[in-house]
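Provenance and format

Records in this collection were gathered into a single text stream. Each protein contributes a sequence line and a token line. The two records reproduced below are adjacent in the stream.
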Amino acid sequence: MLHEFGTHAEWNESFYFNFYDKARDICAFMRIGLKPNSNEKTGFCFFMMPDGSVLAMHGLEPVGDRELEVGNLRFEKILPEKKWQLAFSGMMERRKGDAKASEQVSFSADYESLNRVFDYREYVSGINEKISEKIATQHLEQFGRAVGRLTIGAKEYTLDGLGERDHSWGVRDWNAPKMWIWLTCQFSEKSALNVTKLAMDGGEVDAGFIHLYGKNVPLMKVDIETSWDANHEPKGLEMKLKDMEGNVHEVSTGAMRKTVVPFAGRDGKSLSLMHENLARYKMGSRVGYGIAEYLIRTG
């Protein structure tokens, strides 16, 4: 199932999903990443709950035969670029403020894509491809819908939310960027956006798409102004998106809930923090929800 990989120790292939059930106010994001040259497979799964708590699991194990299963988190492709099954069953840590507790959690969902897959490499080439060569230059995006069930202890929830699927492969060094901003929002089953703004030591790369009227329109220029809280963590942004057809879209967001995922370098010194924010987006009369992700190199 994996693509052919080179010799770099940090060559990675990863599969990521997120979704937000607005009716039940539950946001989920999860990832499985494989580094075959390092015989390393990692996974994480998070649920941001209505009471402000966060359920989290992390897994690390050798690659083995079960490529898309780690720490009881499992992704199964049913139909290429269209349908997936997502599942987890096991213990998760519930965090709320400084309090921590263990919870038995089971989750299963069917994820179905709603747009044609968007291939970043069709629009990121030349010098921009060179700048981003350590950040998985092969990169596919789709938005979709997840429907399923979540059980936490004795409490059960039905789930039905819009979200995003991300599939990337190539060298992935989490500590190479000075910062990246990765934004996904679904306004409806027919309109969505995806934005990447990557800041490397060698320059910046803008990429992504806006999906309106049944088609993906690539983004050519992304201007973002971020507002920060007292802890210098992102709390909102204002941006202008210029698409390939010459349209400019003004978008604002505000963070509703957040969690932070650390990525330490193999050198024992470098560290990047991934701020994963559930955000409310506004674009003209459209209001939607999604993830506002900031990866910030701290050392």
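Adjacent record:
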Amino acid sequence: MSETDSFIDEVTEEVRRDRLFAIFRKYGWIGILTIVVIVGGASWTEWKKAKAEAAAQSFGDALVAAMTNNDSAARAKALTDVAAGDQIAGSPGRAAVAAFLLSAEAEASGDRAGAVAALKTVLDDSDLAPLYRDLAQLKILILDGATMDAAARDQALAALATPGAPYRTLAMEQQALLLLEVGKTDEAITLFSAIAEDADVAQSQRGRIGQILIALGADTAEG
């Protein structure tokens, strides 16, 4: 290679280097910003994950502490505090769990109104999945159904007993019990029998229905 060619190559390389530096000075901030965004986004995600895990742990600890109280009033007060605490912020599901426990505690202590009130906080929360709200509705109908308008109660149970509903067979059981209350024993037996034969019914419910059918004098077939 001649000296001229070598000189030209050096000049060409220098020009390329100058152009590269010029491009970097002009657009390098984009790459830096991209790196900052990626690193910052990853850090933010990890922080949110850690925060959610800490809140879940705190919620669980609070529930355990509340339920280990020996005094019923103390348990109810602790559960009320959990239901209103920061641990449930942004988590309707945790709020529902706390409300169900509070309702159960109120029911056990004979406070039916308090039990229903706790369940209504779940029923009225539009952010909750139907799984929670349907369960709250069913428990309200069981606890407070006798004080409701009969037609409204029947309509609510019918909605819960539709195919595909999560608590369909439990709602059907309540419908059968209502038939018994109004003296429609034959219709109740027919519905109880249908529940017992339903493929989706839990074994515990099937056993309970079987006992009811025996008490009603109906023919039952144990499989």
